[in-house]
Write a structure and sequence with these properties.
The complex is a heterodimer of chains A (about 250) and B (about 180). Chain A contains ten helices and eleven strands. In chain A, strand 9 and strand 10 form a beta hairpin. In chain B, helix 1 packs across helix 3 and helix 2 crosses helix 3. Classes of the chains: A alpha+beta (about 250), B mainly alpha (about 180).
Chain lengths: ~250, ~180
């Protein structure tokens, strides 16, 4: 077997202290000094492995992951995705998922991607619900401090926005974006609001499952999502938030 | 009627089997996925979200997993794609918390005199350039070989091994500097 010079040995050792190639092991077997170097490298490796265990995940992370099949169970089929306020489009939309382009109106609907988005949004709400604090209380300033930092957006101060009762504020990863997730005390229970930095649809559409109704609406360059219980007047929240939303950039 | 009942039982058995396989996947790999996510994004809350998103996508695409032996690499690939999507256009300002203070896991395994070195090494990893940090994390956390890392990062094997060698040397150099500065 070809002899290994010092340079090659050092490079291989520090590229992979746990190298178990036969030629490497043979070199260790034959040379006490190199065995000692290998021990030093393995001690460093153990430190490195422990350092890379920092920080520990939350104690409930595993539980949340195990709940994913439950939280992403198929929603009521067919998933109701409706173009709003336009009965002409509603009459023309076929049941099967097809691409529809309305000339002149410039409306572009992708039912398949909207279904996937609806799944993501509802899944996120269900997954987060056990970890929300119904007694939490955040002021508009609290909300904006976080929103500006994370999203580059804020809510304009007004009597209506300052009256919002916010119990949960968190930056979350949903629909492949960093989003702000707020929970408001609504008339019929919690109202989940998600603000995404990117447009996911050219036009507003409604979503629903067994428990909730929701609206996904363009909001400047981003997207506003409002989800509430069936009787909740979610359009009022959509109107309030979209008319008071400002984007820094 | 009997045929329908048999079919229903088969469907139920398949769904149960799939769920159990998914649970094994979570138990076996969630911790390593989280660790890798953390060293990609360097934020604990974001790493948890990335981990959740990874497993959500994995569950949805579970039928495409060809063998359990490929599961770890598959999960790491999903995570890397989610992380890339995350930073495509916007880099959020995240809490600057010393997450080392979140606590050492399994502290009974670490000798007290090693804890300072671990702290310094943790800090050194934070400063390491991503071209060195990423292959190192894939090797140490993921346990991937040089060839596997080369495939995942679209590099050749020699480049990967060189970066791994340089990564460890840089960490040792940073460790010596920090050690000196902290009077250690």
């Amino acid at each position: 077997m070809k002899k290994m010079n010092d340079k090659e040995f050092t490079e291989r050792l520090w590229a992979n202290p746990r190298d178990t190639s036969p030629d490497f092991l043979q070199v260790l077997e034959q040379d006490e000094t190199r065995r000692q170097e290998c021990q030093d490298a393995l001690r460093f490796e153990e430190l490195l492995d422990n350092a890379l265990r920092l920080p520990a995940p939350s104690a409930d992370l595993e539980k949340r992951l195990l709940r994913i099949p439950e939280a992403t169970r198929p929603v009521e089929l067919p998933l109701r995705i409706a173009a709003n306020e336009d009965s002409f489009i509603r009459r023309m939309l076929p049941v099967a998922a097809v691409l529809l382009v309305a000339l002149g109106l410039g409306i572009y609907l992708q039912p398949d991607s909207n279904s996937a988005l609806a799944h993501d949004l509802f899944s996120h709400v269900y997954a987060e619900t056990p970890y929300m604090n119904p007694d939490g209380s955040y002021t508009l300033d609290d909300v904006n401090t976080r929103m500006v930092a994370v999203l580059g957006a804020h809510l304009e101060a007004s009597p209506a926005t300052e009256a919002l009762q916010v119990s949960f504020v968190k930056d979350c990863f949903v629909a492949s974006q960093i989003a702000m997730h707020l929970v408001l005390h609504g008339d019929m229970g919690d109202v989940n609001v998600m603000l995404l930095p990117e447009r996911v649809s050219a036009s507003e559409f409604s979503i629903s499952d067994e428990q909730f109704n929701g609206i996904v609406a363009p909001a400047a360059q981003g997207t506003l999502v409002v989800i509430g219980n069936k009787q909740e007047p979610i359009r009022e929240y959509r109107n309030l938030l979209s008319s008071n939303l400002g984007w820094e950039y | 009627m009997a045929a329908k009942e048999n079919n229903d039982n088969t469907v139920l058995a398949e769904a149960t089997g799939k769920r159990r396989r998914y649970e094994v996947l979570v138990k076996d790999f969630y911790h390593d996925i989280f660790r890798y996510a953390y060293w990609l994004c360097k934020s604990r809350p974001l790493a948890e979200d990335l981990t959740q998103e990874t497993f959500m996508r994995a569950w949805r695409a579970f039928d495409s997993l060809q063998s359990e032996a490929a599961a770890k690499a598959w999960l790491f690939t999903i995570l890397r794609r989610e992380n890339a999507r995350l930073y495509e256009k916007f880099q959020p300002e995240l809490d600057d918390i010393d997450e080392y203070e979140a606590g050492l896991p399994d502290t009974h395994r670490v000798e007290p005199d090693q804890q300072m070195e671990m702290h310094l090494l943790y800090k050194a990893m934070q400063k390491l350039e991503s071209e060195y940090r990423e292959p190192l994390v894939l090797q140490v956390i993921g346990g991937f070989s040089g060839e596997e890392i080369a495939t995942m990062l679209d590099l050749n094997n020699n480049t990967v091994m060189t970066r791994l060698f340089r990564a460890r040397n840089k960490l040792r150099a940073l460790l010596d500097t920090d050690d000196y500065q902290e009077g250690g």
